[in-house]
Every structure is written in structure tokens, then in C-alpha cells.
Amino acid sequence: MHAFPQVRAAAALQSHDAVVGPAEDGGYVLVGLARDVEAFDGVRWSTADVMTQTRAKLAASGARWTELPMLWDIDNRADLARWLALEGVQHREARVVLPDTGR
């Protein structure tokens, strides 16, 4: 199986209506659809249960879906610091500006 989530997602869409890559924070890092699926109306975005809500909506829609392995994403300054540390980049070297969203 290919390591890149996008490649794995594209392959999964050959036999599924949807593919989702869950994120550690309760959301997701990737969504792919092979057809129109009613899975997002009424989802309470930016909450820790976005993925749980989406799973329930996918099940209720009768969609065939699969999930990729869980990953983490960059939503705030702490997430960015985590990524910079993993990449070995010193904060003072980074030229990234994030809006202050309060998160």
C-alpha cells in the first residue's frame, strides 16, 4: 500500500463511495468522494466530534466508506510548533505567519 494518503484515497475510491482520513483532534485531514454523499449537512465544524458526526451521517446515507490511518494536521500555533520540531526547524528560522484564530 502506498504511503501517501492521497494515493491511498484515490485507490480506495475505486471500490467505495467515500474515503476519510481521520485526524487526532477529532476532525479529518482528507475527504474523498466518488459520488454525492449526504455526509456534511448539520456537522458541527471545528469541534472534537466532527469525525464521529461524519461517520454517523455516512452510515445513515447508506454510503460505502473506508478510513485511512489516523494522522494529525496543523490547525493552530501548537500544531505548527509540533511540525517544525519534527522537521528540525528552529522557530526563529521559520517564516510562517498564522492568523490568530484563538485556537
Q: Which keywords apply here?
A:
single chain, 103 residues, alpha+beta, three-stranded mixed β-sheet, 30% helix, globular
Please explain how this structure is put together.
- The chain is of the alpha+beta class and 103 residues long.
- Helix content is 30%, strand content 14%.
- It has helices at residues 5-12, 50-61, 77-87, and strands spanning 18-22, 28-33, 65-67.
- A 3-stranded mixed beta sheet has the order 2-1-3, with helices on both faces.
- The radius of gyration is 16 Å and the shape is globular.
Number of DSSP E strands: 3
Low-confidence stretches: none
Q: Radius of gyration from the CA trace? A: 16 Å
Mean pLDDT reading: 87
Helix content: 25-40%
Spell the H/E element sequence: HEEHEH
What percent of residues are in strands? 5-15%
Any idea what the shape is?
globular
Q: How far from one another are the termini?
A: 35 Å
The SS-based structural class is alpha+beta
- The biggest beta sheet, please? 3 strands, mixed
Number of helices: 3
